[in-house]
Amino acid sequence: MTIKWGFLGASWVASTALVPAVADAKNASLYAVASRDPDRSQKLNPTKVHASYENLISDPEIDAVYISLANHLHLEWAT
To answer: What are φ and ψ of residue 52, in 5° steps?
Structure first.
């Protein structure tokens, strides 16, 4: 089974650490990204780019979400 990841945010951490880690994993794929800048999301080369964080969170195809936002926003988007 391949785990389809969704990233909230297209931050430096997402692009330099998370994308390579997902690419190296045998059972993972970067399925979707949502950020304030759709062009930046697209540069991470996901299967899908969402226009909003809410759309990504409610996407039934996503198995796991990584919150790559500023630390003070983690609780808001995790609950």
So the answer is: -150, 160
Q: What residue numbers bound the domain in which 20 lies? A: 3-69
CATH number at residue 52: 3.40.50.720
- Give whole-number Cα distances, 19 to 14, 41, 45, 76, 79, in Å: 6, 11, 9, 23, 24
What pTM, to 2 d.p., does this model score?
Answer: 0.92
**What's the number of domains the chain is made of?**
1
Q: Which residue has the higher pLDDT, 79 or 53?
A: 53
- Does residue 40 sit within a domain? yes
**Strand pairing class (3-8; 28-34):** parallel
- How far are the Cα atoms of 23, 42, 51 from residue 74, in angstroms, in the given order? 24, 22, 19
CA distance 24 to 26: 6
pLDDT in tens, 20-57: 999 999 999 999 999 999 999 999 999 999 999 999 99
